C-alpha cells in the first residue's frame, strides 16, 4: 500500500499540536472558512473542486453562502447566496445552518430551516454558478423545529430530504422524508419514515447519505420514553420506499445533549460518526457493533464529529473539544488505516473553532484529506 507523508498547514497562523507528524499517514490540509463563516459543510465534486456552504447572520436569522476552491487555487471564490429570500435561515448552533449534497451531474442540493415561519426549505444550483429560487418543503406549520434538515442524492438524481419535527414530546417525534424523482424540480409530500416508538431527540442533528449501490442511510438520535437517546440508523434499499431502523449505540439521558452526526461514503465503505457521552465514534454501517474512537482523553468534551474516507479505506475522524454546546472547542483529528488501526498521533490546531460552529472534512482523489472550520 502506498502512503503519503503527513503535512499540516493553515491559512491563518496557528501552531500544530500533533506530536507525530512523521510516518506512513496521509496528508491533512486545514483550511479556514471565509471570514465570519459558521456551520460550514463541504463536498467535493468529480472535477476535484471543493464546494463549501456556510452560514452568516444572527442566531435566529441569516443567510447561506456558497464558495468554491478549485485544485491549486489559493483562495476561495466570490460568495454566492444560496437562499433566494434574505435572512430565511436559522443558525443558532451546531445542529443548524444548511446541509449540502452533490449530484451525479455536479448540481448542488441544499436544505435548511427557519422559524419565522416554521418551515423547511430546499434549493438546487444552476449551471451558471448560482441557485434556483428556494422551495418550501413543509405543508404545514412545523412545530418543534430545532435542527436542520439533511439531504442526499443518488446516482439516478433522486433527491431525498429528511427532518424531524412535531409539536409533541420528543418520544412522539418522528423522522420525515420528502423525495424528488425529478432532480429536485418537484417533491412528493413528506411522510414519516422512522418508527413511532423510537422518538427523535429534538435538538440533535441528523444526516443522510447514499452509497454507490443506491442504498439510502439516515442517522438520527432517538428519544424513546424521552430518555433513550441512542444513535439510530435508518436504511432503505428501494430508493426510499421502505426503511429499516437499527440502534447504533445506546445513551440514556433525560435532557437533549445537542449532539450531531455525520457520514462518509467511499468506494467500498460507508461510515457513520456520532457522539455518545463526550466521546466521538465512527464505524462502517455494516459493523455497527464495532465502532472506533480516538485514544486518550478529551480536555472537555469530544463533539461535532466529521469523517472522511479515501480510496485506500483510510479514515479521517475530526471533532471539536470544548465544554457545553455553544463552544466550538479546538479542532482535533485522528487518522485510521483501513483495518481500524490509528495512523500516527492525534492531530490538531490551536486556533478555536468559532462559537456554535463545527468542522467539516472531505477526502481528495489522491488520498489526502481536507478539513475546514
Describe what you observe in this structure.
This protein has 373 residues and is mainly β. It has a domain at 39-259: 6 Propeller (Neuraminidase), CATH 2.120.10. Helices cover 0% and strands 40% of the residues. The chain is built from no helices and 26 strands. A four-stranded antiparallel beta sheet has the order 2-3-4-5, with no helix packed on it. The model is unreliable at 1-23 (pLDDT under 50).
Strand-helix topology:
Elements: E1 28-31, E2 38-44, E3 50-57, E4 62-69, E5 80-81, E6 99-102, E7 108-115, E8 118-124, E9 135-136, E10 150-153, E11 159-165, E12 174-180, E13 191-192, E14 207-210, E15 216-221, E16 231-236, E17 244-249, E18 261-265, E19 270-276, E20 279-284, E21 302-309, E22 315-321, E23 330-336, E24 342-352, E25 360-363, E26 369-372
Parallel strand pairs: 1-26
Antiparallel strand pairs: 2-3, 3-4, 4-5, 6-7, 7-8, 8-9, 10-11, 11-12, 12-13, 14-15, 15-16, 16-17, 18-19, 19-20, 21-22, 22-23, 23-24, 25-26
